[in-house]
Amino acid sequence: MMGLGYIGLPTAALIAGKKTIVNGVDVNPSVVDTINQGKVHIVEPDLEEAVSMAVQEGFLHASLEPQEAEAYLIVVPTPFKEKNEPDISYVEAATKAILPLLKEGDLYIIESTSPIGTTEKMRNLIFGSRPELEGKIYMAYCPERVLPGNVMHELVHNDRVIGGIDQESTTKAVDFYSNYVVGELHHTNAKTAEMCKLVENSSRDVQIAFANELSLICDKAGVNVWELIKLANKHPRVNILQPGCGVGGHCIAVDPYFIVSDYPMESKIIGTAREINNYKSFWCAEKVQTEKLNFELKHGYKPKVALMGLAFKPNIDDLRESPAKYIVQKVLQNANNEEYFIVEPNIDSHNVFKLTDYKTAYEKADIIVYLVAHNEFKDLPRDKNKMIIDFCGVLEKN
Ligand code: SAJ
Predict the structure, then answer these.
(1) Confidence (pLDDT) at 398
(2) In three state form, how does the secondary structure of 190-219 look?
(3) Which of 163, 236, 298, 357 is most buried, with most CB under 10 Å away?
(4) pTM for this one?
């Protein structure tokens, strides 16, 4: 297992749990040490138990260098270079690391979200330096589709799309996953599987952009967007998602760019959706500043503002690409930080922000800004004397 992050480690634990010996490889020595102690570096329900058992029973061992195996899974990050271009250098590096170990009959699978054509590129890389392996090893792409917070369940139960560089590779990879996955395994080719992953997340991004666009229109029109969407969704063929303060996380806010950067002329809706969702975060930050000023003009004193939530979505502790965090940063720029309370009930402390307990912040603030619809916030009392700015429908969900 090349990469022991949010997907690699749970997958390694799952496979090891079926009594298959897994060598987990990561470039980070502290990750390797942590896992070999049966511990984890990621917050994910049920993961620690699975890793601890797999390590104790001797089926999972982590190291900095790969060892010879029959199947190699590439589960490393594919981040962005400047100008929103995908960077597949980790996939390349992981592939180069196993290159000397590959032998006839081996299976090579990429799970990392990748630009269309990456499996083909890795085929050229492998056979370019090991031509004797051409037609002798199996290569496939099989994207992960799990939702953070529900990874251990979804790894087993979600359907998988599996695309080989040829029929034999697809069949071999399907056989491999059938040992661990009870969801349906769908056969295709590598390029379609690569694109399928990007399209799934782009589709969700476009749908959220539609909801966010509605929220901007409704703000001007004086219509409650939450009620509007609830009513529109009563139509049997309409299913609008929820607006929020933007789209975050390391998948939906990123993957559409993999398409846009390669097909800029053709991917107009996908590109525009990204712009709308990014703009929504900027708009929210501006709105907080404007409403704070309005309050001051009306009441004659500077209000205290509670910024409620930093995570990228409800009930998690993950702040990566978080629109809430972006809004907090933007609002605090050139502001008097004493006037703000920053709240994130899912983390104890933060290296930049001084956090306040959510109940204290609610009590002391004049303006409450809901940035993330965490469950805790829904149970707070409804104090009519406070100004509430609800970007994510906390008040609608009770
Ligand atoms: N969001 C909204 N409105 C909504 C739904 C979500 O604003 O109605 C926002 C969330 O607050 C968050 C962002 O979108 O900021 C993304 O959250 P999410 O729950 O939609 O998705 P992720 O990023 O946690 O996981 C997604 C999933 N993909 C799809 O649902 C198509 C997951 O299945 C993928 O495996 C994952 O991306 C991934 O790793 O690619």
Answers:
(1) 52
(2) HHHHHHHHHHHHHHHHHHHHHHHHHHHHHH
(3) 163
(4) 0.93
If we measure between CA atoms, which residue out of 336, 323, 341 comes closest to residue 296?
Answer: 336
Burial class (CB in 10 A: 0-12, 13-18, 19+), 245: buried
What range does the domain containing 112 cover?
8-198
Residue 250 near ligand 1, beta carbon < 6 Å: no
The verdict on the CB of residue 145 being under 6 Å from ligand 1 is yes
Q: Is the residue at 270 inside a domain?
A: yes
111 with 142: CB under 8 angstroms?
A: yes
Say how far apart CA 263 and CA 265 lie, in whole Å: 6
Residues 179 and 273 in one domain: no
CA distance 246 to 49: 34
Could you confirm whether 251 is annotated as catalytic?
yes
Kind of pairing between the strands at 160-164 and 387-390: unpaired
244 lines ligand 1 (CB under 6 A): yes
Q: Are 372 and 313 in contact (CB under 8 A)?
A: yes
Q: Which residues of the chain have pLDDT under 70?
A: 397-398
What CATH number corresponds to the domain at position 123? 3.40.50.720
- Residue 97 is predicted with a pLDDT of 98
Concerning whether 392 is annotated as a catalytic residue, the answer is no
- The span from the CA of 46 to the CA of 150, in Å, is 9
Q: Which of 247, 327, 394 for a ligand 1 pocket mutation test, highest count of atoms within 8 Å of Cβ? A: 247
Residue 38 alpha carbon to ligand 1 centre in Å: 29
